[in-house]
């Protein structure tokens, strides 16, 4: 038996905002995100689960309006669930949890509980930028870690100094039976013995690369982690929310549903042609699944980073 709740519902990277992404035609983008939040919390209440959110509830510390923050507080208050959270970089101001940011407002309203390196009902937390190896104070095998850090299914790209693979995370945080991570937008899980790492993925479909992406939330069985599974979130048909006619006329890199590029060379050529300058995190996501890099690969990667920063290719 475990002292943890039988089930934990895990979800991350909500990126709540009033801003409508350029690729979307619907003016109710924020409402669609809130509908997903309702679905997550309703399911948690139904199965008597705790809720874990490992960061990036908001798209930026100042992106939600006061009304949106208050509405989210009302949504949390609608459901009888315990919600444990850590902060992602998008929740922070200058890499700090500022008193005036929306994340702090949620904590002060007591609708969520921020967790840190001291146990709270066997839940621990590491917010963005805190990469320490923490102790469970003798509660090994019966503890949950929420962490906002780039954790990839395989070996991360060489230039991501703070990123680690799922297996490395399971080894580093070996005291924890369950590790729940946020930041990397592709959902996946990894099991080692009777322990599990769940990377939640994002619930947002905010760019053309995510047109066919199916957002999910996770139900973690704390007594038998092999029974952990995903539940698909309700989403509008792509024809109703994306500017398909416009997007079909643009050049893009072929990607799968998780938003991972097929070829780093294609990304480099796209940048060299001046057709796009993706954000740094989009470049990272495109490269994070590649295990080994040849000399040619490294040359291409350096070119990508140089161009993305506004420079020219050699």
Can you tell me the CATH architecture of the largest domain? 4-Layer Sandwich
SSE sequence, one letter per element: EHEHEHEEEEEHEEEEEHHHHH
- The CATH superfamily of the largest domain bears the name Metallo-dependent phosphatases
The number of distinct β-strands equals 13
Tell me the count of domains.
2
Terminal residue distance: 60 Å
Q: What is Rg? A: 19 Å
Uncertain segments of ≥5 residues (pLDDT<50)?
Answer: 249-263, 288-292
CATH topology of the largest domain: Purple Acid Phosphatase, chain A, domain 2
Broad structural category:
alpha/beta
Shape field:
globular
- Strand numbers in spatial order across the main sheet: 4-3-2-1-12-13
Total DSSP helices: 9
* Helical fraction: 25-40%
Averaging pLDDT over every residue, what do you get? 82
Strand content: 15-25%
Largest sheet: 6 strands, mixed
Kindly describe this structure.
The chain folds into two domains: 7-232, Purple Acid Phosphatase, chain A, domain 2 (4-Layer Sandwich), CATH 3.60.21.10; 251-308, no CATH class. The chain contains nine helices and 13 strands. A hairpin with a 2-residue loop joins strand 10 and strand 11 (195-199). It is globular, with a radius of gyration of 19 Å. It has 314 residues and is an alpha/beta fold. Strands 4-3-2-1-12-13 form a six-stranded mixed beta sheet, with helices on one face. Residues 249-263 and 288-292 have low confidence and may be disordered. It has helices at residues 29-46, 66-78, 102-108, 166-172, 238-241, 244-248, 264-272, 280-287, 295-308; strands at 7-10, 50-53, 83-85, 113-114, 123-126, 144-148, 151-152, 164-165, 178-182, 188-192, 195-199, 216-221, 229-232.
């Amino acid at each position: 038996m475990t002292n943890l709740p039988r089930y934990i519902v895990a979800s991350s990277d909500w990126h709540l905002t009033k801003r409508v992404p350029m690729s979307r035609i619907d003016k109710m983008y924020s409402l669609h995100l809130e509908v997903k939040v309702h679905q997550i919390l309703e399911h948690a209440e139904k199965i008597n689960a705790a809720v874990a959110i490992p960061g990036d509830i908001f798209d930026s510390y100042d992106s939600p309006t006061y009304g949106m923050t208050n509405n989210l507080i009302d949504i949390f208050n609608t459901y009888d669930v315990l919600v444990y959270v850590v902060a992602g970089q998008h929740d922070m101001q200058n890499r700090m949890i500022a008193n005036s940011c929306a994340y702090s407002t949620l904590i002060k309203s007591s609708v969520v509980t921020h967790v840190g390196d001291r146990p709270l009902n066997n839940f621990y937390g590491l917010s963005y930028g805190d990469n320490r190896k923490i102790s469970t104070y003798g509660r090994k095998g019966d503890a949950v870690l929420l962490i906002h850090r780039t954790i990839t299914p395989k070996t991360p790209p060489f230039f991501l100094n703070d990123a680690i693979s799922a297996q490395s995370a399971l080894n580093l945080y070996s005291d924890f039976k369950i590790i729940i991570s946020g930041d990397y937008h592709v959902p996946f899980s990894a099991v080692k013995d009777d322990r599990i790492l769940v990377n939640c993925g994002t619930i947002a479909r905010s760019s053309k690369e995510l047109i066919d992406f199916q957002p999910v939330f996770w139900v973690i069985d704390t007594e038998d982690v092999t029974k952990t599974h995903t539940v698909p979130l309700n989403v509008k048909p792509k024809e109703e929310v994306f500017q398909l006619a416009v997007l079909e006329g643009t050049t893009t890199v072929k990607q799968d549903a998780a938003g991972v590029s097929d070829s780093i060379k294609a990304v480099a050529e796209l940048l060299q042609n001046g057709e796009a300058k993706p954000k740094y995190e989009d470049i990272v996501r495109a490269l994070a699944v590649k295990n080994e890099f040849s000399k040619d690969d490294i040359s291409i990667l350096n070119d990508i980073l140089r161009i993305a920063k506004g420079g020219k290719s050699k």
